[in-house]
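Q: I'm writing up a methods section and want to include an example of the input and output format. Could you take the sequence below and give the corresponding predicted structure tokens, formatted cleanly so I can copy it straight into the document?
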Amino acid sequence: MKKKWLSVCLAAVTAMGLFVGCGNKDNSSDQTAKKDGSIDVEFLSQKREDVDLVDEILEDFMGKNPNIKITQTTTTGSVTFASRVASNDVPELGQVYASTAYRTMAEEGLFMDLSGQDFLDRVPQEYLDMFTLENGSIYAVPVNVNAFGLYINQDIYEEQNLEIPTTFDELIANCEKLKEAGITPIEFQFKDAGALRQCFERFMTGAVDHDFLKICEEVGTGEKSFGDYPTMVEGLTKFVQLLEYSDTDPLGMDTNDLADAFANEKVAMVMNGDWGVSQYLNLNPELNFKVVLFPSVTGVNSTTVGTPDMCLAISADASEEQKEACLSFIEYFLEPDTIEWFASEDKVPNIVKDVTYRSEELADISNAIDEGNFTLSPTLGWANGYQSAIQGELQSLVMERDIEAFIKTWDQLTKDIYSQQ
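A: Here is the clean output for your methods example:
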């Protein structure tokens, strides 16, 4: 039963070494609805930066619905959504993404069909379409989008009389001026392989070639090499060039190290997703910064790149009582007061209709999204297993900085993964 999604998840956790054993859940009605009428639900979140906020929202919801108890758990380095699915321990309520893996799970019946729910009217159709299957069923409801950009310390820029760069050459010129002034131009969190992969694919998609996903597919399914595409070679060259302006080994800092460096004004710029805004402000509420589109590398019109972020799905195997409890929570979550609260603390661009909050630091990114300068991350269309497989090779690129050798390895890895689909 559900062999396809199980094989997908097993492949994913095996590739990352993340398989962990979990006990099977019993979601029969007599197990989930207690004698006192209370209903237990687990919410598995993948947004660790929002744990405290979500706990506050859950507490408010449970205060208004005392018969429902929702416990938030989060993914870790050893426990992922995929590993939970592979071990037949699916949470009743989960945060999912619009990627190939989750769509496969949905096609195999893992998630409850949400079509027809009134709360869907509050989400723009173009975002619901990302979670709509061919049969018309909708497996998740998205409420915001993550996006990528260049974080700039505005105080440092003003002190050095620097202009916001719109081209890669302008960015390098700024790096040179900062270096001459004894200021670290840029730092990276590439000890975290996932953060490296994310920066790379969004850099290549938004600032190098908007057809990056198509190029990966052409290399994976045909005879071509990434080296056959001038934009790919130029993008790799510029990516490696930028590493030279870091004062720290790019593989020596993780996400928290980078946050500490930027929040404490030890560096002028960092590359990151919009989720970094709340983290940096929590560390330094007085930090004066903004997030801008990453400057164009090849002359392409730069876009921000991202995916639907907080997307809620309900397990098809949850009991009827649990499903009703989850639907009640989603309805509450999308109410104007609640979603405005979430948006104001979460900071990232919210897509729910009539939400008015806009982060000052993310004004440029939000405007880009509103104006259509938004490209979906290639991870939503990559072959299963590709996302995790490329991460280690990217760390080798950062370490060795041998572009020709990397292209050969990248070509073979891409063809190997796509041939397995």
